[in-house]
Amino acid sequence: MNEVANVPTVISGVHYAGMVRSGANALTNQKDLINRLNVYPVPDGDTGSNMSMTMKPAGDLNGFTGSLSECADKAASLFLRAARGNSGVILSLFFRGLAKGFKGVTEAGAAEVSVAFQKGVKEAYKAVQYPREGTILTVMRSCTEFETEGLDLLGLFDRMYDVAADTLEKTPDMLPVLKQAGVVDSGGRGFLEILGGMRAYLKGTPVEAAASSELKESADFASFDTESIENPYCTECIVTKSEEYRAEGSVEKFRKFVLSMGDSVVFAEDSEIVKIHVHTKDPGRVLSEALKYGSLYTVKVENMRNQHSELIGEQPAEEASAPAAAAPEEEYGFVAVTMGDGMRSVFEDLGVGSFVSGGQTMNPSTDQLVEAVLQTPAKNVFIFPNNSNICLVAEQVYKFVEDRNVIVIPTKSVPQGITSLMQFDPDASAEDNKQAMLEALKTVKTLDMTYAAHDSTVDGESVTCGQILGLVEHKVRYVANSRTECLEKMLPELEGASFITVFYGSDVEETEANETLEYLQKNAPDTEIALLAGGQPLYYYVISVE
Fold first, then answer.
1. Contact 281, 294 (CB under 8 A)
2. Whole-angstrom distance, CA of residue 183 vs CA of residue 166
3. Average pLDDT, the chain
4. Whether the predicted pLDDT of 261 surpasses 80
């Protein structure tokens, strides 16, 4: 028998709204800890941040008074639209499964909740073609693999939480990479936080969001013009200083750089960290410059134009309206996700008219991609995610678009996106173009050069924060102490290439890029090599090998 007073025996729509908000708060309060559990050393979209942003719209459920079915449907729709990264999509689909389990239901007891969780897990598994044990999916599934007979509602959540926590502790035994790093799965930890938040609500102690400095009053945002926001990207990060920059005054050059990059600048430091806030046109340059002084501890980049549009949308309908979708008058249109002016220019030359800013550490939401598709005046819209962590998000877009045919080409890199686009034939059918583009993906190999964002172990080899990493098809294959050494190690990957394109990033000077070109020409004399200023942050070089 429960010893907690006033625990509901069934949940209604009001209860579910509270449980979801409490779960979202619990997740968000621990997102930095969850981010630190990421084992892959390459700078990438962090699990905690992606899951937290996916559940951020839970606040919209405040004051909800409808049935359980209606509340679950609304939550699922909000989360799918906000989903970011693979972990965010998996989480949103879990809530979609819960909504299916609660379909047509006004209230639910322990038995009905247990069935809904089973449907949530089933839906989440659909997101991954080849699921691995030791991930968030394993932790989710464990909540449905025990006897529930005789359990009341709180007893069910107590049992689910304990089983999930026990399974999470075992994830390092299921995934060697977790054991090497000495951590549990980050997505599984995030899901455990959500479960804990839901349980806390049932006990009458819902988790509140951590205190922030946000103002409680609401301004009249409709009086401002979105396009007048000159520096649209609110960029914040904390940099853990390298040893050589811990002396007083040693980061003064960095402070001046940040001041030159935009407005609303806040620059604070102590002996170990630097915390910055700036509104800028180019967050990539800010982050790349920050990496010269140490490693990124936390990163947040938000598009204030999008935020402003959302805030206007919260005003009465007569004060503002959403941008009208472009009529699908043309036969074909394209949407590409990319970062860096140089890379964007290449896609523009190939006919892409709609862009979504994103890539490593900046995963766009489903809603951002939906908006880009709706602003593309075509009956058939091809999406090029150009990042493995965005493909799953792109595949959810068709659920929100009814008046045009959405076709996702699962490009995992910019070179794949460019190669597939070059196969486009305006006289061919949408299906024939799709097949030609998919075939083209097999003809290109992508090499990347970046840095280790934190200490780690890759294939048994220790990697130290700041070392240079050479990636082949997005997997770390080479570790070096300089970009020159890394390039030398990667030379065998160029053998047999007929054409090589090198995009150099925002952190590479043109002089060095030209030296790299000369080095490659010398070592691959029979190969045509092109050098382009990609402008991408975080990745020194992105190399397309055809």
1. no
2. 14
3. 85
4. yes
Is there a contact between 91 and 49 (Cβ–Cβ < 8 Å)?
no
Nearest in space to 261 (alpha carbons), one of 276, 282, 291: 282
Higher pLDDT, 224 or 513: 513
pLDDT category, 217, cuts 50, 70, 90? very low
**Phi-psi bin for 238: left (phi > 0), alpha (psi -120 to 50), beta?**
beta
CB atoms within 10 A of CB 149: 7
Q: How far is CA 45 from CA 301, 365, 481, in A?
A: 11, 12, 24
Q: How far apart are CA 390 and CA 53, in angstroms?
A: 14
The one-letter code for the residue type at 393 is: V
Size of the chain in residues: 546
> Cβ(414)–Cβ(338) under 8 Å?
yes
Residue 182 region by backbone torsions, left for phi larger than 0, else alpha for psi between -120 and 50, else beta: left
C-alpha distance across the termini of the chain, in Å: 67
What is the per-residue pLDDT across 18-28, written as a single tens digit (0 to 9) for each? Answer: 999 999 999 99
Global pTM? 0.67
**Cβ–Cβ < 8 Å for 283, 301:** yes
Nearest to 414, CA basis, from 504, 529, 491, 289: 504
Q: What angle do CA 210, 211, 215 make, to 5 degrees?
A: 130
